[in-house]
Amino acid sequence: VERNGHRVRRLKDGYVTTVAGSSASQSGWKDGEGAVALLSQPVRIVRDKVGVLYVTEAGSAIVRQLTESNGVLAAKRFAGTANVPDSVDGAKLAKGLFYSPYGIALKGDGTVYVSQVGHHLLRQIADTKITTLAGDKIGGYLDSTGPASKFKRPTGLAVSPVDGSVWMTDQHNYRIRRFNGSTVQTVAGHTFDGKYSDGKGSAAGLYWPSDIEFIYKGLAAFVDEKLHCLRTVTADGVVKYIVGACDDSKYGFQDGTGSTVKFYEPSGLGSDGGTVIYIADRGNALIRKVHCAAY
Q: For the chain, which terminus, N or C, has the lower number of CB atoms within 10 Å?
């Protein structure tokens, strides 16, 4: 997704094509096929097992669904009320509201999870309803249950293939968090002290983790936007450096291996379900590919 271009684009065999949305100068809220559809600040995208795409739109305050027929993608509102930003539970198309929906992830049973950077919440779309699972509208940091827990700008989401828990990059708390169905727990990270460090749990130093994705063997990879690097985290909270500077003063563009690689505020990522990770290198306006087999 191209947030400021208000488009969904496809990269295949080295070619980039626009599959939904019109242009950077045309944003808004309109369902339709291809360029007929208008989007407003699409942020994250996820694909289900049959190929249906779900997109969070921060600008329109909705979740959009994209389905393909005869090679053409059609966009339609899936949940939320367009241009009415708030956090209200209820029927997904009639009364439910989102406020700056951001991260999105799918569970195998079709449940959709959405994080909100507005109001700092974790929401769920299941059957025909939107439900708040965790967080409050004020924001902060607290591990607890349901509405007693606190986040601060939750961005990326991913569902663990091992136990179905929902993992989150809690960006302004500098942590990786996990929701197990009732309780929010901190997996790794601590209040930022200006230092990068690998380690376990609170010993790991993170700075603006932005997106997270489970890769091979249930290991989660995440991008650290302000440290300009890619890192991994295990189920028991062990954080390990993979590639990039991991230094907030060292950014730019450079292909290579290890610390010779340079990113500029990597903000999103996805994988091929194996050892290849794709990174949205926001500051460089590039899609980068990382082969992780060697790591």
A: C
End-to-end CA distance of the chain: 28
CA–CA dist 57, 28 (Å, integer): 10
Cα gap 224→256, rounded to integer Å = 18
Cβ(191)–Cβ(175) under 8 Å? Answer: no
Distance of alpha carbon 87 from alpha carbon 111, whole angstroms: 19
- DSSP sequence for 124-192: EEETTEEEEEE--SS---B--BGGG-B-SSEEEEEE-TTT-PEEEEEGGGTEEEEE-SSBEEEEEE-S-
pTM to 2 decimal places: 0.95
Which residues, in sequence order, are CB contacts of 180 under 8 Å at separation 6+? 163, 165
* Type of residue numbered 94: A
Task: Determine how many CB atoms are found less than 10 A away from the CB of residue 14.
Answer: 5
The 10s digit of each residue's pLDDT in 212-268 is: 999 877 789 999 999 999 999 999 999 999 999 888 999 999 999 989 999 999 999
